[in-house]
């Protein structure tokens, strides 16, 4: 397995790492520095507000890019992967809650313990939506394989008109891009690019241009006193954000190199997402760590630098915990896979 990781091209693996760091910084800025309160109209301006809007315009593309990666390389449904994924989520839900109880940072009760499994319904919003996409992937792959270029373009245009061009005004079908509709749309766009877009010249430059367009839309509406529209610009079904995800992907796709270290770290980054987005950890980072930094930092510049430093710490802690979790859970998974009825379920691909 190690030899395989070293030989595999690491460009997309590096992209996964970069995207996870972008997500962490995005969460610390929008929650800890309360930039997301633009959406409710309760945001209190800071000296660094303009820079925060600019920074978020570059960061917000991360989730769409993750979904694009899945569509470009196509999800290959495997029951073993699904079982492993569910065990991973269960571990972070239960264990992190119990750790907070042990540290005296949360009160224990059986109802709350049982509710830690609600990630299957809500919890990490990304998890149930991606699980739905994962389950639908075999049918999507088969259906898309039967379409020619013209048919794919027609499908993309129709889906775009139905939900995406109204991203500023309201939900409509796509639920601001946080629902399965937008994930399927990006998956289809990625399938088209895999088959008909071999290379994008100056992809990095086009990513910057798209991000600056998003910034112009966001800051322009903020400047004229429309903060709710500012926050709507960051909806995941904003067509410019989806286009930005395409260009960011091809920025790394155009690279070619190998690194066993990068490949190994990339295999740990989803655990980092589950770690820092677990409810207790998320609230502690927002209400304690970032809140403390806001009181001790002398100005917004040092505050933002400390946010980046905190993001590095969260990332390192996250991959470390995931490595430990794998050591604990992998033997359990291997044992489960030796059980006959589990083997039968695992073979249902």
UniProtKB/TrEMBL annotation:
Protein name: Acyltransferase family protein
Acyltransferase domain: residues covered: 11-317
Species whose genome carries this gene: Chitinophaga oryziterrae
Coiled-coil region: none
GO function terms (MF aspect): acyltransferase activity, transferring groups other than amino-acyl groups
Transmembrane segments: 12-29, 49-69, 81-103, 123-140, 152-173, 179-197, 204-224, 236-252, 259-276, 303-321
Pfam families: Acyl_transf_3 (PF01757)
Assigned keywords, A-Z: Acyltransferase, Membrane, Transferase, Transmembrane, Transmembrane helix
Signal peptide extent: none
